[in-house]
Design a protein that fits this description.
This protein has 203 residues and is an all-alpha fold. The protein has 2 domains: 54 residues, Homeodomain-like (Arc Repressor Mutant, subunit A), CATH 1.10.10.60; 130 residues, Orthogonal Bundle (Tetracycline Repressor, domain 2). The protein is built from 10 helices and no strands. Helix 5 runs antiparallel to helix 6. It is elongated and about 55 Å long. This is TetR/AcrR family transcriptional regulator. GO terms for molecular function: DNA-binding transcription factor activity; transcription cis-regulatory region binding. Keywords: Coiled coil, DNA-binding. Pfam families: TetR_N. It comes from Rhizobium leguminosarum.
Length: 203
Amino acid sequence: MPANVSKLRTKPPEERRDELMTAAELLFLEKGVERTTIEEITTGAGVAKGTFYLHFSSKADVLQALRARFVQGVLDGIVAAVEGRRQEDWRGKLAAWSTACAIGYLDAAGLHHLAFVAAPPATREGLSRNILIDHLNELLAAGAGENAWSIDDPGFTAVFLFNALHGVVNQPGIGETPSARAELLRAIEVHFLRALGLPSGID
C-alpha cells in the first residue's frame, strides 16, 4: 500500500470530520447548500464518497455541525478575552465579552448568514438557549455576587443583551470598514455597560 494512502486512512476521525466540514463550508458559501453535492464535499476533503457517511448522514447534518462549530469558535474567543482581564475587573470583563462576541459574528458573517439565516435551524431556541448566553449568564451572576453590579435576574439579562447584540451585528453590511467596525464595537460595549448601570466612558 502506498505510504500516502496509509497516511490518509490513519487520520484521527475527528480530524477527518473537521476536514469534511471545512470543505463543505467553502462549497456552501460559494454555491449554496442545495447546489452542493456530497461528492463535491468529499472531493474537496480528498476522501472517498463513502467516508462522508461515516461522519454525517446528510448535508443538513453537516450544516448543523457547522452551526455548532461556529458558536463554539465565538465562545472560545469570548473566554480568551474575558480571562485576559484581571480577576477583579468586572467592568473590563463585561466589555471584553461584548467586543469578543461581536467580533466573532462579524468575522464569520458569511457563515453565520448561511447557517442561521439562509438555511435556518428548525427552531429559534438558540436565541434564548445557547452556550454564549450560558457563559454571559455565568459572568453576570458572578459579577452580581461580587457586587460589581446589581441585577435581579442574570438569565433574563443575558438573553436580553445577547439578542440585542445579535440583532445589531446581523444587519447586512454593518461594520465593513475598520472605522465602522470600531464605532460599532464601541457602541455595543457602551450599551452593555449602561444596561448594568456601569460608566461607559462617554456618559
